[in-house]
Amino acid sequence: MRIRPRATAWLLLLAFVVAGCTGTGTPEPTISPSQTGLSGAPESPRPVPTGPGSAAAALAHLCVHQSPGPPSTVAPEGPTPPAIAEVERQVEQIRGLEFTQRVAVHPATHAELVKGLQRSFDASYPAGLYERRSRAWQAIGAIPPGTSIRAALRRFGSSQVIGYYDTLTHELVFIGSADPSGIERDTLAHELTHAVDDQHFGLGRLDHLANTCQDDRFDAALALAEGDATSVQLAYAQRYLTLQEQIRLGLQGGGSTAGIPPFILNLETWPYTAGLGFVHALTARGGERAVHDAFTHLPVSTEQIIHPDRYPNDVPQPVDVPDLAPALGGGWRDLDVMDVGEEWLSILLALRLDGTTAAAAAAGWDGGIYRAWSDGDHVAVVLSSVWDTEADATQFADAMQRWIAASPGQPAAVQPVTGEHVRVLFASDGPTLSELERAAS
User: Fold this and answer.
1) Which stretches within 141-214 are classed as H helix?
2) Which of 150, 373, 400, 409 is deepest in the core (most CB within 10 A)?
3) Based on the number of CB atoms within 10 Å of its own CB, is 30 exposed (0-12), middle (13-18) or buried (19 or more)?
4) Would the pTM count as exceeding 0.70?
5) Residues 6 or more apart from 129 whose CB is under 8 A from it?
6) Structural domains of the chain, ranges and CATH numbers in brackets
């Protein structure tokens, strides 16, 4: 995968400078839930309303990506350097999986790695989609006025990424040489884990989730992939690096995060920390076979990653936002639609509330989506969510009230809680909020 795509044309699985971490594969193995300690077969996500005027219909219209073309595997050139071959064998021992084919591994300079990422950037982040999304997130208050999500992600990729594995070409690129240092071998172990997982489970499935803008499901699957690679990477460091190398790795600083809003930075790094906890919980439950089963039956929500006990059987409820453009007036059109999961809401709330309060307020999530409209100059957004209980809904609504109050003058309002349902309205300005409240009444 690439720079953590919330909607991407293909996937670059990354290693980040931060914390020293970060085609279609072979047929998936058949692993029964009884072999992994799972309580039963995973449930499928419940169908969402897709009729005319629905949010899903609007999303299908807005979610447009440039096709990257058919998979084109990059063939390895020459024999695998001995030092890299040794890391491959060590990853096999830690992960408990063997490579089914050679991996095209290319050591690179930082400039070469950044150049490789930039080649896929436009296809991975369509300019039109992300320009519209930037306006929606600004109206919500997730990012500062005038912020470009694409510019922030470009900055993130050029300053934080130290390696990637491309699921389309099956090529692995990392900053290093054919005789990598201990820290470079640690990065290589992370990316090689992506490669061996891809060969056994087909990580290209994540591309489909991204290309169809199934954002929360994509984030959940991505957390599994990055959590597994980070788990192997940590085990590799403990087993194969010297104490001095481990200390240097711990002291290794990341690049500058200037120009990357906290909301985007936290979204980008979330899969590594939350995914690691999820993988450790699976391993404690059923060993490596439980991790294999999760790759076979991908988690369907970030809620399942945050609360591993809810995987695989707690699936989200469908949520819809009807088209309010006609009620808003002439010239209003759909601007953006996005799935909103527990991860997204928790990170949003934590921008203005303490982390514990934010996490608790988002913990009862059971489904969510926002829909945004614009007349060209103004933006209106409805965030609709459903919760496990009425008490959970009230807790979230109260937290959103405090979140809005923490930024005096923000045009936003929490509508009265209706059972387990909460709607929050956001707008680019006060008059637009008034019109949105009228249209949504």
Assistant:
1) 149-160, 182-201, 205-211
2) 373
3) exposed
4) yes
5) 7, 62, 63, 64, 65, 336
6) 12-310 (no CATH), 325-440 (3.30.200)
